[in-house]
Fold this sequence. Notes:
By secondary structure, the chain is α+β, with helices and mostly antiparallel strands. The chain contains 20 helices and 13 strands.
Amino acid sequence: MVKLDEHPTVKHFYENQLNDNLIEDYLNRFGKIDSSWLIDLCKESGADDVGFVEVGCSDLAKDREDILKYIPHSKTLISFVCRMNRSPVRSPARSVANLEFHHTGETVNKVASAIVSKLEKMGVRAVNPSMGFPMEMDKFPGKIWLISHKTVAVAAGLGQMGIHRNVIHPKYGNFILLGTILIDFEVDIYAAPIDYNPCLECKLCVAACPVGAISSDGHFNFSSCYTHNYREFMGGFTDWVEGVTDCDSAKDYSRKFSDSESASMWQSLSFGANYKAAYCMAVCPAGEDVIRPFLENRKTYLDDVVRPLQEKEETLYVVPGSDAEEYSSKRFRNKNVKRVSNGLHPKSARGFMQGLGITFQREQSKGLDATYHFTFTGEEYYEGTVVIQDRSIQSSEGHNGEPDLHISADIGVWLGFLRKERSLIWSILTRKIRLSGSIMLLKKFGKCFAS
């Protein structure tokens, strides 16, 4: 058996170590990577703009635990953007817009891979999480992403969040896709967030959104956006599968789903999931390279960019009893409104509590002012408090304040009730779910969380 030191691979490593690790001498002398050199490397690899964030940055507090759990050697996050072509994204033909999203998304991943490859050859450990998918689907419907690219991009000085919840780059506007790379070295100069928000607060995204997910006061209804725009992703696909399995025959299926819906789902499964809207991005005029047509003639801009999306005949997917259903039915009578489930089924008591904020329908909560205590038992013990007042929601762990309604339930029964697999009345009669307070408050609570 050949001794380790005499193995050809080991000998070759030691003979070529100095040549292969050219950056190590620099790092040994200065301790940090030169930021200008790293910016050039990233741009030569295809990035349109770059910024660096220290892993200890306070803006990353919510994500730091996951970052260090999955990529423990991380010291610096490289945030970069790749610009999208604007005209395709603005097209009412979603096939054209989605092609641009998919193409640029693939570019982001290729750029990240190229940067990682170059750094790895120089002795720097680097990891590039996916721009979008694939994600950690075993955690769905919880936090399935490793890195919050938007949070990192803002901290890296690449833009600020607009009211449509997209990062707006000062030059390229929101016509960008984001990538992040984590490395095990510090850089000599870190970025800071830009000192203004490129968002013009023109509210064109409010006017264009077909399901009313964006409000003029800055409120964002995650559920409305998720249910429609991501119909052929995750939860929407789950709902479609459940719809298929509930069908008794091909004729029954054809009554529930049109041929175009079936073909669209096939296309998403075959070539990549398609967004149904993203109109908020399409109409956004912010950014130095983007703003000119909007400033030169706003009426022409509205006629050319906004109205074609508003007037497009299409199907809007909404949850029954949701704010989106109410808004879309009144605002867009030229569009077909179809009632569906968002396919979001919490798997635990904690998941149920954490998900309330993203499924909350504030317009359905008008007039409700109540504090709810939850006590879950069985396979999982959990106590939580939910306060709904002034069309807003706050949830916290533990029992806080005096409840107007206290709900005690076996967690398995409660989750079954949420999935519509168990009868609420029967669960109450069998004391699997127990109420201390008015059952009408539970009914009003349920109205706030269309799913």
